Amino acid sequence: MLMSEEMKPVQIKVKHVIRVVIILVFALIIILYGIPLFHRPKYRQMPQHEIESIYKKVKDEEGKMYRSEGSLKFKKRKFYLDGKPFRIFSGAFHYFRVLPQYWNETFMKMKACGLNTVETYVAWNFHEEVQGQFNFVGNYKLLNVREFIQTAKSYGLYVILRPGPYICSEWEFGGLPSWLLKDDDMKVRSNYEGYLTAVDKYFAHLIPHIQDLQYGKGGPIIAFQIENEFASYSTEVNHLKTLKKMMKKHGVVEMFFTSDSEISSWKHGLHSIVYEALPTVNFKDLDAGGQQLMDFVQGLSDEFPLFVMEYWSGWFDEWGRPHSGDLPTERLKEILTKLLEKGASINFYMFRGGTNFGFMNGGNYLHKQYSPVTTSYDYMAPLSEAGDVTEKYHIIRELLLQHQDDVQHFHGATLKEIPRNTEKAAYGTVPIKSYLPFENMLDEIKGKIGSKNIYSMEHLTLHHGGGQNYGFILYRKILPKIQKLEIKGIMQDRMQVFWNGKEVATYDWNENVYVIHMDLVGPVRMDEKHNTLDLLVENLGRVNYVRFGKDSLNQEYKGIIGEVFVNNSKEALTDWNIYPLDFQPQYLNNIWVNSGYRPLVKREASPAIFSAEFDIQGTPKDTFLSMDGWSKGVVFINHFNLGRYWSQGPQRTLYVPGSILKNEKANTIRIFEQKKAGKEVIFVDSPVLGG
Fold first, then answer.
1. Do 468 and 456 touch, CB atoms closer than 8 A?
2. Could you tell me the pLDDT band of residue 25, with boundaries at 50, 70 and 90?
3. Pick the catalytic residue: 310, 458, 538, 556?
């Protein structure tokens, strides 16, 4: 019997099956990695027998479990303050990421959400940018940690202080000053003598500056953290003990704690920290390590209260990667409900993320390669980068207000009304009027260095030998006609190569071979005897987080660590001019009023500084700067460094605090564009952080 057309069997070819499988595999990769909930390495569950072996070590050593000598104490899984049961509902809010003009409204919104505590890191590298020179005020008072703590007190909030010295926090070098690396033998986060000497001097300035703000002395500080997530980095428990002794020596009298997001290191000797500080935990989801972390701490002692020191309320973004995803609303509610019903104290990291102004973003080795963090640190937190209340804020508030028993306040009570979000402005399009050529920029660099060899930023003789911290570094050499250029060694993080002012190559951290054949780069001017080679290298942010056992933190040199060769010669090039382009205040002043600006007639060649002005009528409001049409660079408004922009995203706008703008006066913009400039910038009233 003949089959009809409808009855004929479908013939599936092998090649079609292969195509479908490939598509499905790529779809799965995109789902799992392209739009991740967060980028922290997957938590590795520890077998129960290994956990039991840690408990046995703790018991066999017969050490005395940590008991707080400070005002905040704990007993039978509960905190007590002034002898009364005390529960901590806290939010992370970093003074160095939000201008002081916005601290008041943020503290009020925290109080209205049911919080009684604010937590902040202290960024060592921001306070001691040059070795031995301490700054606790800073540009726009951004470094006034003392005033921040006092302001928190005025709103009835307690304070948890995390002074480092290492803080991670997606902050440049994890808060460590880069001048540490001028010591080639440096071992950060260890008992290496050179490191401890520097830390001791830092504590000797910081702690006396705020010691009278501890609770026992009438202030709001109730607890101090020792280091930060040390279990994910090392097992050198003596380092933590040394830091604790230093902190006590310089005046800390309140409760000590540690916080960790994994516990594998405990089986290699870190377990003895339970005699020195209260262990607390960091996580996002109970099913991704959170439950085991909590169970582990509770199994250590019947006395230890459950404190989630970092409940990751969102996640950060990295340049060139998709905008981070978030937990579904129902899952967030489910997790928080379980934590609250278990009686846990919670610190929401972040509650307001803020901004990595200037060059202060960090970088990570979470994907087996370097990834720089974006300027925005919005973090998808309950309060946005600009401090606005979000849907997540309302969800958290609704749950916290149902569990206010034992939530004491320093004074006052939870605010009944949520403060309104501040009005944002769209100031519109601002045309670019003029530009300052790169050569004029270089002329204003007073610290030009003549050097036989190439050196990294950290090994320059600037700042009393401490080197260059941030920004860009230019290596310049005059050469005769060449056919081939090769850089051997390491380049960190992104390099543009110019020949007689024309860009002939760009390399980033994904590449490690730097070879240029000049006959393949297109038309360039080639003089027989006199050509200018420029190697412009950008520090995109020193790494703030590395996996356990890695030595990367001690190798965070920026610039070129190697040599340059031409025409297959075995002799490396020597006699360089090195220009540190770090945009320090004096340099900014010089280029702001430079007489070399030229009218913008067409899309001029970059790198260069591009200039514009705009006026504001009425009280300046927060706004967002769209850099559509631009490639990559840094924006300054009224001498304030807003941070980096980059067309590859995911971040598309820069947050502009209204407090840096001027009323009825000319607001001036300077943009350092590295590749292709636009003809205008646009101020809009809402951010674009993904896409």
1. no
2. very low
3. 310
